[in-house]
């Protein structure tokens, strides 16, 4: 086996050789993309040897594997990560010099694969990182979308979406594996299996087939030899799909019709965060992912095992929300129809194989599919769902005799004018374990959304609080603070044992440490200011408090509540130009789904308010508002290290967990937040005195809902009224009162997420924030303690929880 050398000289030699033999060029004539690509493959090569040894160790041990199925991954940029994970990071500068390419330019070519929408996709990436770091044998399966999450730009303040052509220059991080391609069917008919008296085994003859071609990216562990992989499927037409005779007849469009239809399956990520849309093509994507992945899982299983009895002992599949839940029916189909396993045994194997993670409480985010669509697209799977439901409801009827309403509530099929399949119900019925993603979330899930199931099978339900990888979100994102921490703690052990940060607690009495901490945060703000100025033209003051709200735009997350606070500050300063206010930079980042009109309008309003603030000479000296365009993992890595205040202001009971809250706390931002999702656990750990709490709790919010009149709050609170009236007046729309009227109407009409009810508590709490900020020593101590006490929120702990509670897998060390 060829292995790469370990010195800088080896690295430089390989670099020049790769440039010459792989790119076919020389240092003198290399372009920017040439230089980047060559650097990337040279770094990548340093992982290949570890990857091969990992595969060999896994083959020898024949261990139980975790297969993580997710429609989304937000991996972030790969170059810096892989430099860090191969120990070659210190060489970046000399190597860039060798290539004659400025570092910043090289990094700019390192596009992040935007194969996800938000938290759910980033959680998947953090878990893969942690599993590799913990030496857990694991494979992530996903879709290689040709276009990832859209690029966000603003035209006159309004969001415009552009396609994300992320592989335009080629992706140096992926290895195509054409030999492992699979064939997947859609549509068609089903028929009885003549030799099966039960009628449970049937034959499906698809009406269309598509090829799935895999490629993989390497997922290295930090400080260990393990390199796992993420395998991504791309849809291709079968070779016969090109219609040569039509092409020859000049019918160019028709000649490639089948190819286009097949390849559309992996064309684009649905940029729809948690609400449903896209219909047939989206369901096709979901089935394509699970059909390819399951065939690959079975292929891998059969490399070392025979028969089916051992399958659940060797294979554990984690379903990341309901998007891959068709895998349950697909495994049943493969076992029963193709491998001729008895239904009961197949069902027992299937249930023992799958586990399901739920990431929401919002009823509209719980996926359902019309029966009629399934009947056409996946006729055999619908039959299997009916059989699963039939046996399941028999069990329910035996447990609750005569309780028809229970049957209706639990059924996998939702009855009504349009019958639909409830994917979450299918997931719970077909899984061993079901988990929520934060304590409150799991509690509410079992008390409300999935209550009947929790009553039926209490032992199935678990909580696994989310986490974030400290490698990307502090070590890579925040090298200054990381160096300071390492200096204080003596070594880098905290990067894989994050609870060690606790020892920073003593440092709050060390004025020199506090000064260095503050200076690191200030430098981060200087860096951020440079990026912000470059991308928006807005100049921000690094001395001002950096107040950040970065997350998808969603009504329940309540960006509009933050905006009401901003407008209140604006009004106060205008009314009283001598007012002693704490200077703030309010930084928003986030995208709205292209079809989510209310949130696109709110984005427009944020930009309009930002402009009004910026053009007012009095206000702009103390307040800045910026909406950073095209928020993504890369931007997160710039923004988070500079943040002083973390806005986590969703209505209590709506945010399943949140993970940005963890990243920000870890980097020393202090949270202002509601008792929602993981905020509760963050507050418990960092201490109530280091967290700014406001607003209704879940129970109070539920009570208020019954008799809520947002207008009452509007009428009673002059500052609130002034803020809402300012939007209504058209001052942010050059006098156009109509433009933002829908925002005002939504607030005064239904105010679905009780923003007006929480306004006073929020604005007053912001005063307490100012108060704390004025005492910079106090603030810095709070900042240090937030970081010091965030160790629990490492995704290493999350992965370990999954291992202990759900997966029951053991690490397999990879020898060097
Ligand atoms: F609705 N989440 C997300 F549950 O980013 F499916 N996209 C989604 O489509 C859903 C959830 C879904 C997020 C949650 O909103 C967030 O609270 C959580 O921290 C994150 O998933 C990871 O669990």
TrEMBL record:
Keywords: Carbohydrate metabolism, Glycosyltransferase, Pyridoxal phosphate, Transferase. Its cofactor is pyridoxal 5'-phosphate. It comes from the Bacteria. Pfam families: Phosphorylase. It catalyses: [(1->4)-alpha-D-glucosyl](n) + phosphate = [(1->4)-alpha-D-glucosyl](n-1) + alpha-D-glucose 1-phosphate. InterPro entries: Glycg_phsphrylas, Glyco_trans_35, Pyridoxal_P_attach_site. Its EC number is 2.4.1.1. It is an enzyme of class 2 (transferase). PANTHER family: GLYCOGEN PHOSPHORYLASE, GLYCOGEN PHOSPHORYLASE, LIVER FORM. Belongs to the glycogen phosphorylase family. Phosphorylase is an important allosteric enzyme in carbohydrate metabolism. Enzymes from different sources differ in their regulatory mechanisms and in their natural substrates. However, all known phosphorylases share catalytic and structural properties. This is Alpha-1,4 glucan phosphorylase. It comes from Dactylosporangium roseum.
